Structure formats: structure tokens, C-alpha cells
Amino acid sequence: MPRRVAISDIHGCARTFEALLDRISLGTTDDLYLLGDFVDRGPRSAQVLDMILRLQAEGYRIHPLRGNHDQYMLDAILVGDKRSRASWRNAGAASTKSSYIQPGNPEGRIDPQHIAWLNQLPYYYLLDDYILVHAGLNFRRKNPLKGKKAMLNRRNWYRHIDYDWLGDRKIVHGHTPLTRQQVEAQAHPRRRAYPVFDIDAGCFHTKPGMGHLCALNLDDRTFTFVPNLDR
Fold first, then answer.
1. What pLDDT digit, counting tens, does each position of 115-140 carry?
2. Roughly what angle, to the nearest 10 degrees, separates helices 45-57 and 112-119?
3. Element (H or E) spanning 138, and its range?
4. Neighbours of 46 (CB within 10 A)
């Protein structure tokens, strides 16, 4: 039976991402939602983007959206002002730029196809039972789905959730790293009615309990983890 799976915050960890897809045995009838932050921090950002584009070309049902690090990269390259370049540099641009240095590309020129692909990504996916977003929602707005800045950057927003607006949907996001134990605790029966899942298991982090990439099966609400293989 086709599944719906969500993964967030790959952060240049291409080997880890590939291992996680192998672990869940992703098939071409499954729907894979990727919740942004494909680049920066990890060593293989270019390879992550190449892999996703290849999977899409091979007929896999990939539904990506943008994260704040992807936006930093876009702004630095497409806007190119001093502030945008500084924001990307502080966010981990050096590792992303290094990933483009290859025998056929010794100067590390960033693939324009990657930029075009990132620049057309949506900010959220609205399903019958889920809202998928990178960071969070601004529930102080009449329509939280209009708040692009919050979708890319917001933290500490749970106390503002408008349950009437949200209805029966649950929100799945990344952006704020948790330990594996904290991620798994979200599936505890006592939290079954809580409307949010944070699936950022801190893939690039070295803090105790972090350093995993996580996949959430949206249908049975189970987690699959692999440890970072890109260090």
C-alpha cells in the first residue's frame, strides 16, 4: 500500500539521506514530503539536491518545500546584496560551496538548475489531515498560511495555536532540532491528541541524543531514524 512519509532538515547529509530512504524502502508509489533545509552545515549539499532531482526524474513522488537555509542560499545568489551574502555565510555557506567542487567543476560553480529548482519550491503543503511546513505558523495572522516568514523561521509558537482554525489537522515541521528521545516521545499515547510533530532530529548536530535523520510515516505515525553517516 502506498505510504506518506515526511523528512526534514537533511542539511547536506546525502549519505544519511540515502541510507534513510533505503531503510524505509521508498517506492515510486509512496509520497515523500521533504520539509526544507537541504543545504548548509553538512558536507554534501550539492549531492542532496542532485539525489532529489534524480528521484523526481525517475518517477518518485517527491514533494519538497523550502526551508530557511534554502532561502538564505537563494537570496545570496539571486539578490546578492551584502546583507544576504552575510546571512548565508553565517548560516553555513562554506560547506555548501565546497560541495560543488568536483573534477569537472574545480571552481565550485553552483549549479543553476539547483537554484531554479529551489526558487520554485512552495512554503507549505496542505493535506486533508496535515499541514506540512519547515518551521512553524504565525497564528496571530487571520490566515496563518499567509505568513511566509514564520514558515521559514519561527520557533516557540505552540502556545499560540488556534485550534479552531486548525481543526482536525496536525502540523508536521522541522527547523527546531530535538534529541531522538524527544522526537519519539511525540508518539506516546498521552500526546496522541497534541496537534504537532517536530521531526528535526538534529542530523548535523553533535549534541548528546542528536545526530539523526528522521522519517515520519504520516499514516501510522511511526518514526524511522538513521545516525549521521556524513561526518
1. 999 999 999 999 999 999 999 999 99
2. 70
3. none
4. 24
Instruction: Classify residue 7 by its DSSP letter.
Output: E
Residue 41, phi-psi category: left (phi > 0), alpha (psi -120 to 50), beta (remainder) = left
Q: Give every CB contact of residue 181 below 8 A, 6+ residues apart in sequence.
A: 209
Integer Cα distance of 169 and 181 in angstroms: 24
pLDDT, tens digit, 9 for 90 and up, residues 81-119: 999 999 999 999 999 999 999 998 999 999 999 999 999
CB proximity list for 173: less than 8 A, separation 6 or greater: 8, 35, 132, 133, 134, 135, 136, 196, 197, 198, 199, 200
Instruction: Using alpha carbons, select from 215, 152, 206, 153 the residue that is nearest to residue 179.
Output: 206
Mention every residue, 6+ apart, whose C-beta is less than 8 A from residue 140. Answer: 160
- Tell me the one-letter amino acid at 54: R
Is pTM beyond 0.85? Reply is yes
| CA-atom Rg of the chain in angstroms | 17
CA distances from 153 to 66, 67, 126, 170 (A): 11, 8, 19, 19
Selection from 152, 120, 123 nearest residue 136 by Cα: 152
Q: Are strands 196-198 and 170-173 parallel, antiparallel or unpaired?
A: parallel
177, 200 contact by CB (below 8 A) = yes
- What span, in angstroms and rounded, lies between the C-alpha atoms of 227 and 198? 17
Tell me if residue 224 falls in helix, strand or coil: strand
